[in-house]
Amino acid sequence: MAGEESKEPLSDSSDECSDQEPTWIYYRDRPEWNDVVPVELNEGPFPVVSIAYSERFKDIFNYFRAIVLKNEISERAFELTSDALELNPANYTVWQYRRTVLKGLEKNIQKELSFVRRIIEDHPKNYQVWHHRRVLVEWSGDPSSELRLTEIVLAQDAKNYHAWQHRQWVLDTFKLFDHELEFVERLLEDDIRNNSAWNQRYFVVKQTSGFSEDIISRELTFSVNSIKKVCNNESAWNYLRGVLAHYTTGLNGHPVVEELCQFLDENNSESPYYFAFLVDRMEELMQSDASKRQVLLPKADGILQVLATKMDPIRREYWLFLSRYLNSQFAN
Amino acid sequence: MDDCKEFTKEKHAKYFLRCLNALPSSLVSLDSIRLSISFFAISGLDVLGRLDLLDKHREEYINWIYLFQILPNQDDESLERCGFRGSLAATLSLESHSPSHVGRSVNIGTVSSHPLDTSHITMTYAAINTLLILGDDLGRLQRKGILAGVKALQLENGSFAATLEGSESDVRFVYCACSICYILQDWSAINIETTTNYIINSISYDGAIGQDKNQEGHAGLTFCGIAALSLMGTLDSALNLKQKAKLVRWLVSRQQSGFQGRPNKLPVDTCYSFWVPATLKILGAHQFIDRKRNRQFVLDTQCNVVGGLSKWIDHSSDPLHSYLGLAGLSVCEDTDLVEMIHPALNVTMRAFNHWKKLTSEFI
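Structure tokens for the assembled complex are given below, as produced in the milestone run.
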């Protein structure tokens, strides 16, 4: 049987649990479970990637399999899923069956939200718990705890992808955008380099006002102010470009951007993102106006050489490639 | 390259063999997906050029994988459940567990016993790849069932879920679906147009691909999207030159020593040494990688005592990061250390050539 060859030194924390919980009784020893025949795992005589399950784990999952095969919808089945999930919250079959039982018993959703919240706090990067949470909110139609939950998780890890994903779904489904820009700004005050927060900002603007001319100016100003404080921040530059993509004249011409470039130039700012931006601006100008090529090409080339040799040598091959590319496009 | 740490190939081979044998109980969360762990270990041995270490038990490994296949019922009922389970922990069939069944020397799988006894798309993907790597002729694959299973998982917006019920849907499973269809050379089960559009709609304002629409651009998810487009043959129609150029710059910017998964996310993590270079390779832009710096980092993540690679330096090793770190070296063409890999399929070129030979025999 799988795991039979495992040695006890691989014993796990759930064995320690049973040491600390003298009241734990194996399902196989519970008289009220006498009617159930446990289903043991058997992957044959050649076990592969076998896991050293604890006795408790084997017992619980043997009974879980049996209960599902019986399609038993009952309180004891529900509690069994709780036991199973405590040991392996990544078992998606257990979560799915739990949902079946929840529905069948018409159990209280608020209590279940508390249950899954505790597991999220312990396993914030587990796909199954976040999916379960989403399904519960879909059932209840009640998003009132979700912003707070994701805020708490993000307070532990401001870039937790699952938390951001859940939060976006809640905001969009229930139209709760009212205070989200403030939330994003608080996070950016904590960490101006939080790429997830910048992404969230774009999402909020996109889903609410959209990128009208006024909003474009506002958002450019926001990112420009950020860049003036911390120039070497890829997230802010990506955001700036993302917003500018909605502006019809490209990287050149918007007054907010022109002012930024002037400011950075006067301050002798140095950052690979700024310099790459300058090169891209020059490329656009050379593309639209051939008369500018003679002046701009050597300038762009000069910047690319600085990037390749001094400022960003890990990307040397890339900057040199750009230089060759621009020369092939714009040299006489 | 002599200021790099020594490459302890034999230790890593032993590490993968140990994973194939048993995992510590601390990894019990992998219980439902053990088949995918076997992929990391077996493909890992292949990338190390040490698949010979499995020769003695090759047929047994193949047989073990087929154990997880879900067969169509009589009258082809419940075809949509077909594909592969991740382990028998995820299956409920009494028949699967009976000694008379599992003692067989030629497994073909079992019929689904219950609506929750269904395939998981990532496991179907892993099973097919691993069988190929082991040199199987795929003769026991239930192609009709597998494709019906994949088809049933596609959503209207083009995305894919992992299981018939109870699963999220996103670009990771899109990649699995495309890989399966590519290997089986059968695109009838999926809607290429909606799948392509779904990926395009997941492109972030920064040029990279997120897990789903509006989500943050992420290197692993970008690989899934770009590799899927490449396998479907819609990469060039989906992304214009400007979009490709923007994405190349985003990818190239991920390198710090090794690679990060998102802008400003540190420390760098070994698995991105595969996701980023593989995507660049598919886009024809891998020459922009600083191979030496990546190699230095990846070799620094080697675990001295148990072998394998870890996600960060001085951290414990795990099967996923061990495999992807090595696959990353392969994509970066460190062929003095590892074998060459197919960047979109994520199997060695040797396994890919075996597939080509098999496929030419089908036609």
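The two ends of chain B are 45 Å apart (CA to CA). Chain B has one domain: 9-20+28-91+112-356. Further analysis is deferred to the final report.
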